[in-house]
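Can't paste images in this forum, so I'm doing it all in text. The chain is below; anyone willing to post the predicted structure tokens underneath?
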Amino acid sequence: MKFQLLTSLALSSVLDSSSASNVRLLKGEDYYDAVDDTQAVFVKFSEPGCAACEESAPVWEELATAFADNQNIVIAETVCDGENEACLDNNVESYPSYQHGDLLGVMTKYYGPMDLESLEKFTSEHVRLRCSIAEEHWCNDEELLLITQIRKMSSEEIEEQIELMNEAEEAEYDAAEQKVETAESLLEDAEDKLQNAEGGDERKAAEEEHKDAQKAVADAEAEFDILMDKQEPLELELMEEIAMESES
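Text version of the structure:
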């Protein structure tokens, strides 16, 4: 009887261990605190009652198991239950959806194949954080060479280059903002013409001009949004890190 009890307990322990998931569950209230900021993450966004989410669960678990010993990459899942603000923050519109990158920074949507081999290859090659001085293990050979070149520069050269690159960025933002303002001004003029058009060919021409002006505004705003979402040039970030490093 004692032997049977011990055997039963051992079997139960094995079953419990095998049923434990390697997928990191990111709950809505602690979504942004559940992963170390030095780790890259591959997140599955699911929804309660989603059949496709359940169907993809086994391969997602296999992927998590394959990277369970990797301290730099986290395979995770979060449930979009209507109260999970992370789903809104990441513009999740369908389920399941997959994103990878920096949980506290830039996340990129994944649209690739969902077989294990493809997922493992993609995760190994693309699920990573941005190269930085503090986390050089995320840097490729080309980026490491850039760091070496920057370190050979004097403090004065680095500061001068940082200033030039910041000025170039500001000029780019100013130009994009001016483009939006110009397009909005043209739209206002087009709306006035359309409102005052008496009919016939005059109204038809005003309608066409108004339509073109609306498109110009939409295009200018889209370009501005893309620019606002764009990361700083890596070279600038690295120089800023090295400059701070030398100051401390």
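Residues 1-18 have pLDDT under 50 and may be disordered. The first strand starts at residue 24 and ends at 25.
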